[in-house]
Amino acid sequence: MDAKSRDWAAKEWLRKMIEWNHAAKLKWGFSLKNEGKNMKEWIDKKTWEDLHKSFGRSKKKDSWKAMEKTIKIYRRIAIKTANQLKYKYNQKPDDAIYEFIKNLV
């Protein structure tokens, strides 16, 4: 799998987490079938702005920055979602994976 495919997969996981977060806020009164359609209308402004910073260009350094931004957004939303659902967010594997990725650079 090439880097762009991995980035696309990461963005899909991020989209799903954003949708789960929104659905949890609305007590699951939100359709998760929309594949991100009209996302700008229902996510907060900060997340929308951050999403635009999570897409890299063709330069290696820019791609790594975009991936780091994707990870940070995902982590922030996942922690919020876990809290809304009264789950404990397991930071340990998150940190381990992040360190592994940072060492790839």
Question: How are the SSEs placed, and which strands pair?
Answer:
Layout: H1 3-25, H2 39-42, H3 45-52, H4 60-84, H5 91-104
Helix pairs in contact: 1-4
Helix-strand sequence: HHHHH
Largest sheet: none
Please report the number of helical segments: 5
Class of secondary structure makeup: mainly alpha
Q: How far apart lie the N and C ends?
A: 18 Å
Radius of gyration over C-alpha positions, nearest whole angstrom? 14 Å
Fold-level CATH name: Four Helix Bundle (Hemerythrin (Met), subunit A)
Query: How does CATH name the architecture?
Result: Up-down Bundle
Low-confidence stretches: none
**Annotation, overall tally of beta strands:** 0
- CATH class reads Mainly Alpha
Shape: globular
Compute the average pLDDT: 86
Question: How does this model look, in words?
Answer:
The protein has 105 residues and is mainly alpha-helical. It has one domain (3-104): Four Helix Bundle (Hemerythrin (Met), subunit A) (Up-down Bundle), CATH 1.20.120. The protein has helices spanning 3-25, 39-42, 45-52, 60-84, 91-104. The radius of gyration is 14 Å and the shape is globular. The mean pLDDT is 86.
Characterize this entry briefly.
The chain is mainly alpha-helical and 105 residues long. The protein has helices at residues 3-25, 39-42, 45-52, 60-84, 91-104. It is built from 5 helices and no strands.
Keywords for this structure?
about 100 residues, mainly alpha, Four Helix Bundle (Hemerythrin (Met), subunit A), 5 helices, globular
